[in-house]
Amino acid sequence: MITVDPSSPTPPFEQLRAQFVDAVASGELVAGERLPTVRRLADDLGVAPGTVARAYRELEAAGVIETRGRAGSFVTLDRDPIRQQAQRAAAAFVEQIRSLGLDADEALQIAAAALRAQA
């Protein structure tokens, strides 16, 4: 979960940027996953939209996220076309699992079982 600590000496946009990088690195956010809109995240966190917009700009410049016009901002896909397809499939899987109300541990168990069954 992304948060902002107003008492931190680290500027809020940098807190957001670092937390998004960590979430992508840990797999909490997966390639192809859509990010909240600037306005919605700003409202949720109680910060100015410009703070979120700056964090998103820096993440995009670093290649962590990409903005697709009106479609929104997404975690960047890998440059390898095969990995891109796998990442899209994983993002679709996550979306389906969330809509079913299953937790991450159960989803991983289901995916692992399906992979073992195909081997």
TrEMBL record:
SMART domains according to UniProt: HTH_GNTR
Keywords: DNA-binding, Transcription, Transcription regulation
Ranges where the HTH gntR-type domain occurs: 10-78
SUPFAM superfamilies, per the entry: Winged helix' DNA-binding domain
PROSITE patterns: HTH_GNTR (PS50949)
Keyword Cell cycle found: no
Keyword Ribosomal protein: no
Protein name per its UniProtKB record: GntR family transcriptional regulator
Species in which this protein is naturally found: Microbacterium horticulturae
